[in-house]
Amino acid sequence: MNLSDSQAALAVPDIDPARLDAGEIERRLKRLMELERLVSEQSAELAWTNERLVAELYDRSAVEATASQLERYDVVTGLPNRRSLEERMGRALAAHETTQAPAAVVMVGVERLAEVRETLGYAAGDNAARQIADRLRLAVRGADLVARVGDDEFALLLTSLRQAEDAGVVARKLFSTLDAPLRVDSCELRLEPAVGVAVFPQDGRTGDLLLARADGAMRFARAHRTGLTQFFRPEIAQRAARRLSVEADLRAALERDQFVVHFQPRFDLGSGRLIGAEALVRWQHPERGLLGPGEFIDVAEATGLIVPIGEVVLARTGAAVVEWDRQSAAGALPLSIAVNLSTHEFRGRSLLDHVGRMLEENGLAPQRLQVEISESGLARSRDEVDAAALAGLRAMGVRVALEGFGAGAASLALLRRFTVDALKIDGQFVRAAPQDERDAAIVQAIASLGRRLGLAVVAAGVETEPQLATASQLGCDEAQGYLLGVPVPADEFARLLSSTRALATQRRPRRKPRNR
Questions:
Q1: How far apart, in whole angstroms, are the C-alpha atoms of residue 114 and residue 122?
Q2: How far is it between the farthest Cα atoms of the chain?
Q3: For 7-49, what is each residue's pLDDT tens digit?
Q4: Neighbours of 321 (CB within 10 A)
Q5: In whole angstroms, what is the distance from residue 116 CA to residue 127 CA?
Q6: Confidence of residue 504 (pLDDT cuts 50, 70, 90)
Q7: Contacts by 407-415 with C-beta closer than 8 Å and gap 24+?
Q8: Which of 84, 156, 174, 182 could cross-link 80 (Cys pair, CB 3.0–4.6 Å)?
Q9: pLDDT score at 378
Q10: Do 458 and 401 form a contact (C-beta atoms < 8 A)?
Q11: Considering only 298-307, 372-381, 414-423, which range has the smallest mean pLDDT?
């Protein structure tokens, strides 16, 4: 019997107790006791329900607090995130708008954090991020705000500046703080930070604009290796606008098949014979005409578009070589072909698969392909990824050349880290060698080094007969440059092949070839 049934049973007209017999009284007492029991149970259930309701309210409040924490703070470092930073910047800059006191936004990029995650794992990456956060907190005053706004980017809002120039002092301190070695999993790492600064009010009056301009300055510092810090300048904004415009045009160019390949001949200095060509990408812009790589390669590399562009160049090159072979005279030596690669092409899609497929589809021997990597690009590369890619190419039989050799900062170190087949001397040394003894000594030293290591040495950028003669005398094996031939389209290069081969031995200085 439930509570309502017992209540109904007792809801009868009043009866004089004297008229009730003992059995009826007992039955009514039992019903009353049952009612009291049900009331007690209902009260206990109500109390339990109330306790659960209170607990659920507390749990919901905790979940909401956690969600709010996640929305505004970075889980790994505990720092405010971009949303929280933007909210606080709005309030802080409103106060500075009233007082006109200086303030600054500093963007700190730590590109090697991604490398830590890739090589040591996510736990090590999180450990490094926490150490960076701790260093940044300790490097600024309590009134300044430190936030993590990306996987490898941190931002600081400096509100306690006496004068705008103080932002530079703080920025340099931040750089020094992060440039010190960091220990992660028994490894000592150099983080190689980049720091950009935007100052209120001259660089912007809103948090969004200051953050964007500090980010632009930081990326400029990273790309140009400008030293400790980089303050925002109008040219940086113009550069960013250009990059966006060029990026959009590059994407359209890929869709509309606007990239073409030109070929520049390469000669053997010992025999004077044409032995190969270098494939050079050109952009047939619908409005600006034919553009060289200097107009767009930097944007292509920064945006990753260099990968699909490189695939186009490789495919066009393979097709051109097959056509030259078809047209060549019987007995003519097959040309080798050089293709420039960016270190960005070593990552993402499989470079080895793409190169292997191109060779197979065109029936080309791997030894006829030479990939050229810039010395400066390889010096900034991630050893493990790039060394494996280069080793894979060489294992296929493809030759590898180090381009722009001598102009970078770590040429000899690169020869220890990477195995290559040829050195292409930077053209600035080749062009100056006839007039400058120091440049001539550098060319000769590189040629001697190549000889000792069993590497071919190419003199690039040859523009005059004296430069060509000097390169030969100083020990270079091969040469290319405008004196020997300008880059031309594939069909024009094909027409030049027969006449160039016939005239090569008559025009070029001869030198006894050396064994290598």
A1: 9
A2: 147
A3: 555 454 555 555 667 777 777 778 878 887 887 778 777 877 7
A4: 24
A5: 10
A6: very low
A7: 407/375, 407/376, 408/375, 408/376, 408/379, 409/376, 409/379, 410/379, 411/375, 413/379, 414/375, 414/378, 414/379, 415/453
A8: 84
A9: 73
A10: yes
A11: 372-381
Q: Which amino acid is at 194?
A: A
Give the list of residues 6+ apart from residue 391 with CB closer than 8 angstroms, or none.
419
Helices 465-473 and 437-453 cross at an angle (nearest 10°) of 50
Q: By the 8 A CB rule, do 322 and 360 touch? A: no
For the chain, counts of helices (H) and of strands (E)? 18, 17
- What are the structure tokens assigned to 123, written together? 């736990």
Does the pLDDT of residue 4 top 70, yes or no?
A: no
Contact indicator for 414, 375 with CB cutoff of 8 Å:
yes
Q: Is residue 225's pLDDT more than 50?
A: yes
Is residue 478 within 8 Å of residue 450, measured between CB atoms?
Answer: no
Residue 219: is its pLDDT beyond 90?
Answer: no
Alpha-carbon distance of 360 to 32, in angstroms, equals 97
DSSP track, 155-200 = EEEE---SSTTHHHHHHHHHHHHHHS-EEETTEEE----EEEEEEE
* Of the candidates 151, 118, 111, 153, the residue with the CA atom closest to the CA atom of residue 136: 153
Select from 390, 312, 300 the least CA-distant residue to 358: 312
Structure tokens at 319: 């097709």
* Cis check: omega of the bond before 102, within 30 degrees of 0: no
Q: Residue 264, CB half-sphere, CA atoms under 13 Å: how many? A: 19
Do residues 230 and 246 touch, judged by C-beta distance below 8 A?
A: no
SS3 350: coil
- Residue 475: both structure tokens together: 């020990």
Tokens 């494996």, residue located: 388
Beta-bridged to residue 262, according to DSSP, are 280, 489
Check if the beta carbon of residue 328 is closer than 8 Å to that of residue 320: no
- State how far the Cα of 265 lies from the Cα of 271, in Å rounded to an integer: 15
Question: Which letter does DSSP use for residue 332 in this model?
Answer: P
pLDDT in tens, 450-497: 999 999 999 999 999 999 999 999 999 999 999 999 999 999 998 888
Query: Once rounded to an integer, what is the mean pLDDT over residues 73-98?
Result: 88
User: Whole-angstrom Cα distance, residue 106 to residue 170?
Assistant: 9
Phi, psi of 149 (to 5 degrees): -110, 0
Residue burial 62-97, b: 16+ Cβ < 10 Å; e: rest: eeeeeeeeeebbbebbebbbbebbbebbeebbeebe
Q: State what percent of residues in the chain have pLDDT above 70.
A: 85
Residues across the chain: 516
What are the two backbone dihedrals, phi and then psi, of residue 371, each rounded to the nearest 5 degrees? -95, 140
Full DSSP string of 58-71: HHHHHHHHHHHHHH
Name the β-bridge partners of 284.
290
Tokens describing residue 294: 């200097």
Average the pLDDT over 45-68 and give the result: 69
Q: Which residues contact 168 (CB under 8 A, 6 or more apart)?
A: 197, 229, 231
